[in-house]
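[Meeting: bench + compute handoff]

Bench side (C.D.) handed over the final construct sequence. Compute side (W.E.) agreed to return the predicted structure before the next meeting so the bench team could plan truncations. Sequence as handed over:
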Amino acid sequence: MFKNHGLQIDLKMIPQKDRHLALASGSIQCAATTVETHVACNTNGVPIVQIFQLDKSYGARGIAARGNINSFADLKGKAISVDAPGTAPFFGLAWMLSKNGMSMKDVKLTTMSPQAFAQAFVAGQNDAAMTYEPYLSTVRSNPQSGKILATTLDYPMVIDTVGCAPEWLKANPKAAQGLANAYLDALEIIKADPTKSNEIMGSGVKQTGEAFAKSSAFLRWQDKAANQKFFAGELQVFMKEAAAILLEPGVIRKEPTDFSVMFDASYIK
């Protein structure tokens, strides 16, 4: 697909918390990550411009809790496993707590990777855990350990976009357009042959096609129409809300003054 648009792409798997360093060093020119990560990068001095939306989480991330925890209020003072500040799980937990009149200061945080804390939770450690698929299904498959308190179906907030360094975009507008077009082409292939597509995508994250299909069932790929709607207003609203959430735990030191520099809707028109 990339070659069809004159592109030679080198895909690199970089931990979310390190992508801003890769961008800052120039080792990568574009990154696929969550919207709030783009906001944090820009605010913390690493400019990146979002050019198209990849997907939205529909239950792919959530909070697992012990059986005696029936509401967010019950989480107060409890030990919750979550990934490091600056990651999507950390933001997701902060977001869900904020929507229930709480903050990270109301709970006890223990830092673990998503895979580790799903396994630890099932083994009996901690009161709750913020994780994502396929690890969330580890909890779903072990109801004796606890339950899913809430997911992104209840609190929509995990949105992945592709962004690129502004200087690279300025110098390579055709390549950037080709990147966006290649993504839209990929959606057509997924629609036409989901089995083969899941095998290809699954191989990239060391999953079988069947396993990837189960995990991605909790995602919704965003087509051109959805992209246009998102960039027309939803993105700006979300970025402003996200900035306030990022500020409270110190992921950013100040609120952004100009969100317009963080996206360019021209590539999905």
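W.E. noted at the follow-up: The domain at 61-151 is CATH 3.40.190.10 (D-Maltodextrin-Binding Protein; domain 2). C.D. will use this when planning the next construct.
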